[in-house]
Structures are given as structure tokens and as C-alpha cells.
UniProtKB/TrEMBL annotation, chain A:
Its main location: membrane. Belongs to the NqrDE/RnfAE family. This is Na(+)-translocating NADH-quinone reductase subunit D. It comes from Allotamlana fucoidanivorans. NQR complex catalyzes the reduction of ubiquinone-1 to ubiquinol by two successive reactions, coupled with the transport of Na(+) ions from the cytoplasm to the periplasm. NqrA to NqrE are probably involved in the second step, the conversion of ubisemiquinone to ubiquinol. GO terms for biological process: sodium ion transport.
Automatic annotation (TrEMBL), chain B:
It catalyses: a ubiquinone + n Na(+)(in) + NADH + H(+) = a ubiquinol + n Na(+)(out) + NAD(+). This is Na(+)-translocating NADH-quinone reductase subunit E. One of its GO terms (cellular component) is plasma membrane. NCBIfam families: nqrE (TIGR01940). Composed of six subunits; NqrA, NqrB, NqrC, NqrD, NqrE and NqrF. It is an enzyme of class 7 (translocase). InterPro entries: NqrDE/RnfAE (IPR003667), NqrDE/RnfAE_oxidrdctase (IPR050133), NqrE (IPR010967). The gene is nqrE. Belongs to the NqrDE/RnfAE family. GO terms for molecular function: oxidoreductase activity, acting on NAD(P)H, quinone or similar compound as acceptor.
Length: 215, 240
């Protein structure tokens, strides 16, 4: 990235792997689990968070010197809430069906810990440009996990990706189903999201021993 | 009757953690020790019991389409302020948490010492905002039911964090694969617990008509006193 200095590039790259918001920092789990039964919902959610976190980090960073520290949580919540209302209204206007699927989870972006966590940990102490990169990086790290989880859940659970049947037709018995393959409907249920994330964490930490916790 | 039904439904069937994944962040972060888990759990029950009914009032008299018409006269009946829900709800929650913190600090220093550090955490706990948003989207009809819903889902969350904290205290002595230690195994255990909680899904499913409805609430009441085993047997019966 010629555009960015090495330090700035690290702001974007780190959260994608070794400092991932979900698997390492343990932030923003709720929505990551609840809306990953469909790939489409996961992608929309990732972009919503990208928008809210990117803009929110800049706004908080610009205001960081004038926010009294005692009421900063309320100020942060109002900034996020305003941005989330924009996202919610846009979704309702242009993707109504999808906004029904996401239901309350769009609203819950407000209390998504990634957002508050990055405001507290980064935007309050850094300039707008660096905060923007940090926001984009963390939202991307969040989105990557979301999309991986949703990919496997939709593929194994319903045999589709983004709604298109990729493994053949289960009723007509074409494609893979001709060989006796069955969809694992269990993957679409809530508990499997937890287990899939657990497995991702397992794989990541097996590859990078430095991340292993001692209890 | 419907209070009892909603109460048990919100504790077991629609459990905040296991069915909707709300409040997972603090659930994972504060569940290393049973004592701290109890503190946070109690604070969540407390705050949910206050904010859900409060937000219900806001929703009914300010935010719903036509809500203003109920008390300001017919000319205001056309207004629809529901796009303000998020900001109103979160502002109520943040101020209530602050207020509760001040009141508790003043009148009960010992409670403050045990709850105090958790209260700021709660303002950004998705379980609290989620409680209000689900209350809105499920259209809970009365203030009393909203309170029941708040308390019930608080207790459900409390049970979940208590259970995982107890398991995590014990699992320290087990030989978990290094890469799974800590976060990984907690996720997988939570997944297994969620599968367990799915069995409660049969608790309130009965017929569709009025008579069956009365029967199933009676079933629920009976179950409260029954032990776990009988509960399972009942579930099967109701399902059939």
C-alpha cells in the first residue's frame, strides 16, 4: 500500500488476523452469531458495521478534546445511535425483506461492543485519519469472521450460497444429492454458530501459538 | 396466567444468551469467576426490570405510530416517531444506569461495592437494549407483561452466566487442547448448553384453540414444582 505508511497499514492489517475483534479481542459476538445463518444477511451486517464504525471513529476522534470524560459513554452512544438510525432507515427503504431478517440486530449495532471498544481504546486518543483506518480495519476483521461463519452455515445447512442452490436440488435429487447427501439442518440453528466460531478460534490458535491462552 | 407463561418463556425458551445471543460480550468476558458472574447477573436483572417497562411506556406514548394522539389530541395522531426508537431507548438505558449507580451508591454502599463496577458495563450490554427492542418488536400488550418480560429475561441471562462461570471454574483442572483453552472451549461449551436449552422449546407448545391454551399454562405451573425428569416427560406429552 503505497498510500499508507507502514504504521497506518498495520492498523488495517492487524485486526484481520492476529488482533481480530471477534476471535482475539472478544468483541461484537452477539450479532456475529445471530445473523450468520444466511450469507446475504452476514454481508449486509458487515457493511453496516463498516459504515458505522468508520464514520463513528472519525466523529469521536474529532470530538475527543471537547467530550467531558464523565459523560463520554452517553456521547458515544448518541453518536452510534444516530449512525445506526441512518443504516436502519436505508435498509428499510432499499432492502425491506432483509431488514426483516435482521430484525432487532440492526438496532443492536449500537451496543455492539466492537464499536464502543474501538471508540474507547482508539478514537479517544488518536487523530481522525488513523481512527478511520482503525475503524475500517476492525470492521473488516469482524466482517471476515462473519462471512466465513455464514458461508459454512448456509452451505452445509441449506445447500445454498446467497440463496442460489450450489449443491444441486434436494427434492429433485440432482447434483450431490444424487449420491445420498443430505442437508444438515442443524447448522441453521443457533447453537451451531457458537461451535463454528469455536472451531475457527481453534484453527487460528493452532496456527499461531503466540495467541494461546493459559486458562 | 399469561404472566407465568411469559415469565418461563423468557427464561427458558427465549433465553437471552442461548436463543438470541444477546449480551455475549460480557457473558464471555466476566464469566471467569462465579462471584463476579453473580454480581453482573444481578445487575442485569435489576436494570432490565427497570428499563423494559420504562421503554414500554416510551414506546406506547411517544414512539409508536399514532402514540402522540393518545394524550396530545387528535391533531397529533398522524405522527410516527418510531425511527427515534434506538436513540430514545439507548438514552433511557444510559441515564437509568447512571441514575441507578448514583442511588445505589448513596443508599446501599455494600450493594454498590458488589454491583458498582458492573453498572457502567451494563449500559453497553446488548442484553439490555435487546430486551427493549424485542419488547417492541414482539408487541407486548401491557405494562405488567413488559415488567414480567424484563425480569424473566434478566433471570435467564443470570442463569446462563452463572452456569458458564461454574463450568469454567472447573474446566481449569481439565486437560483441554492448548489452542482451545480459554475462549475456544467456552464457545463450544456454550454451544452445547444452547443445544440443551433447545429442549425447553417443547414446554409451551400445545394445541391452537382456547381450551388447549389454558391447559398448557396449567402444565407450565405444574412443571414449576415438578422435578427435571417429570418436566421432560411432560414435554413429550405436550408435544404429542
Amino acid at each position: 500500500m503505497g498510500l499508507l505508511s507502514k504504521k497506518d497499514a498495520a492498523l488495517i492489517k492487524d485486526p484481520l488476523a492476529d488482533n481480530n475483534p471477534i476471535t482475539i479481542q472478544v468483541l461484537g459476538i452477539c450479532s456475529a452469531l445471530a445473523i450468520t445463518a444466511q450469507l446475504e444477511a452476514a454481508i449486509v451486517m458487515s457493511f453496516s458495521v463498516l459504515f458505522v464504525l468508520g464514520i463513528g471513529n472519525v466523529v469521536i476522534s474529532l470530538m475527543r478534546n471537547i467530550i467531558p470524560s464523565k459523560i463520554r459513554i452517553i456521547v458515544q452512544l448518541i453518536v452510534v445511535a444516530a449512525l445506526v438510525i441512518i443504516v436502519d432507515q436505508v435498509l428499510k427503504a432499499f432492502a425491506y425483506e432483509l431488514s426483516k431478517t435482521l430484525s432487532v440486530f440492526v438496532g443492536l449495532i449500537i451496543t455492539n461492543c466492537i464499536i464502543m471498544g474501538r471508540f474507547e481504546a482508539f478514537a479517544l486518543g488518536n487523530g481522525p485519519w488513523r481512527s478511520f483506518l482503525d475503524g475500517i480495519g476492525n470492521a473488516a476483521g469482524y466482517g471476515v469472521i462473519l462471512i466465513i461463519v455464514a458461508f459454512f452455515r448456509e452451505l452445509l445447512g441449506a445447500g445454498t450460497l446467497l440463496g442460489f442452490p450450489v449443491l444441486g436440488d434436494p427434492i429433485e435429487k440432482t447434483g450431490l444429492y444424487a449420491f445420498g447427501y443430505e442437508n444438515n439442518g442443524f447448522m441453521l440453528l443457533a447453537p451451531m454458530a457458537l461451535i463454528v466460531v469455536g472451531i475457527i478460534i481453534w484453527i487460528q490458535r493452532t496456527k499461531n501459538k503466540a495467541l494461546v491462552e493459559d486458562h | 396466567m399469561e404472566h407465568i407463561e411469559l415469565f418461563f418463556k423468557s427464561i427458558f425458551i427465549d433465553n437471552m444468551v442461548f436463543a438470541t445471543f444477546l449480551g455475549m460480550c460480557s457473558y464471555l468476558a466476566v464469566s471467569k469467576k462465579v462471584s463476579t458472574a453473580v454480581g453482573l447477573g444481578a445487575a442485569v436483572i435489576f436494570v432490565l426490570a427497570i428499563t423494559v417497562p420504562l421503554n414500554w411506556l416510551l414506546d406506547q406514548y411517544l414512539l409508536q405510530p399514532g402514540a402522540l394522539g393518545k394524550w396530545l389530541g387528535a391533531e397529533y395522531a398522524d405522527y410516527d416517531l418510531s425511527f427515534l426508537s434506538f436513540i430514545m431507548f439507548i438514552a433511557t438505558i444510559a441515564t437509568m444506569v447512571q441514575l441507578v449507580e448514583i442511588v445505589v451508591e448513596k443508599f446501599s454502599p455494600s450493594l454498590y461495592n458488589s454491583l458498582g463496577i458492573f453498572l457502567p458495563l451494563i449500559a453497553v450490554n446488548c442484553a439490555i437494549l435487546g430486551g427493549s427492542l424485542f419488547m417492541q418488536s414482539r408487541e407486548i400488550p401491557t405494562l405488567g407483561l413488559a415488567t414480567t418480560y424484563g425480569i424473566g429475561s434478566g433471570i435467564g441471562w443470570f442463569l446462563a452466566i452463572l452456569a458458564i462461570a461454574a463450568i469454567r471454574e472447573k474446566i481449569r483442572y481439565s486437560n483441554v487442547p492448548p489452542a482451545l483453552r480459554g475462549l475456544g472451549i467456552t464457545f463450544i461449551i456454550t454451544g452445547l448448553m444452547a443445544i440443551g436449552f433447545m429442549s425447553f422449546g417443547g414446554m409451551l407448545t400445545g394445541g391452537d384453540d382456547e381450551g388447549a391454551k389454558e391447559e398448557k399454562t396449567a402444565q407450565v405451573e405444574k412443571k414449576v414444582v415438578d422435578d427435571n425428569e417429570k418436566e421432560m416427560a411432560n414435554n413429550i406429552k405436550v408435544n404429542e
